[in-house]
Design goal:
This protein is of the alpha+beta class. 32% of the residues lie in helices and 32% in strands. It is built from 4 helices and 7 strands. Strands 1, 2, 3, 4, 5, 6 and 7 form a 7-stranded mixed β-sheet that branches. Strand 6 and strand 7 form a beta hairpin. It is globular, with a radius of gyration of 16 Å.
Length: 168
C-alpha cells in the first residue's frame, strides 16, 4: 500500500545527491540536480518509494559512468490547481545501452551488457522493481540511450500539489 505524505521535493532530491556524492566521486563523476522550468516544492507522494526509485536510477547511472556526469532533472507540469505531472530524469554520460536491449532492461534478471555487469556486479532486479513501484504509484518509466553517449531514464508520476509544507 502507498503511504503518501507532504514532501519537500527539493530536499528529497538534494538528500539523494548528498548520499551518492562519495560514490560518484570515487568514479570520477560529478552529480547534481536541477529544475527544468518553475519549481514545485511541496507535493503529496509516497516519499520513501519515490526515493527508492530515484536512488536506484542514480545508483545505476553512477555504476555505468566513469569520469562523467550524472544529473537529476525535475520538471512539473500542472494539470489543475491541485495536481501536476512530475517528470524526473536521471541523465548520465556513461556507457549507454544499445537500442535492441532497451526494452528488456525493465524485466527482472536482465542486464544491458553482461561483460560490463560482471565487472560492476548486479542481479538485474533494480529496474524491474523500479518499474513495479512506479506502476503502483500511477507512474511510468522510459529510457533514451545510445552506446558511448549515455542514458536518460525518465519517470513520469502524477502528484498532488501542496500549497505549503507541514507545520514546523
Amino acid at each position: 500500500t502507498l503511504s503518501p505524505r507532504q514532501t519537500d521535493l527539493g530536499a528529497l532530491l538534494q538528500g539523494i545527491v548528498d548520499s551518492q556524492s562519495s560514490a560518484a566521486a570515487e568514479a570520477g563523476t560529478t552529480i547534481g540536480w536541477r529544475w527544468s522550468g518553475p519549481p514545485l516544492r511541496w507535493i503529496m507522494v509516497d516519499a520513501a518509494r519515490l526515493q527508492q526509485v530515484v536512488l536506484n536510477l542514480v545508483g545505476n547511472a553512477i555504476k555505468f559512468t566513469r569520469d562523467g556526469e550524472v544529473w537529476i532533472e525535475a520538471r512539473a507540469t500542472r494539470t489543475s490547481d491541485t495536481q501536476a505531472d512530475l517528470q524526473l530524469s536521471v541523465i548520465d554520460t556513461g556507457i549507454g545501452i544499445a537500442s535492441d536491449r532497451q526494452a528488456a532492461i525493465f524485466e527482472d534478471f536482465v542486464t544491458s551488457d553482461t561483460t560490463y555487469s560482471r565487472r560492476t556486479y548486479g542481479a538485474g532486479l533494480g529496474l524491474g522493481i523500479t518499474r513495479r513501484l512506479l506502476s503502483l504509484m500511477g507512474g511510468t518509466i522510459s529510457v533514451e540511450s545510445a552506446p558511448d553517449k549515455g542514458s536518460a531514464f525518465r519517470v513520469s508520476l502524477p502528484v498532488a500539489i501542496i500549497r505549503r509544507g507541514p507545520p514546523a
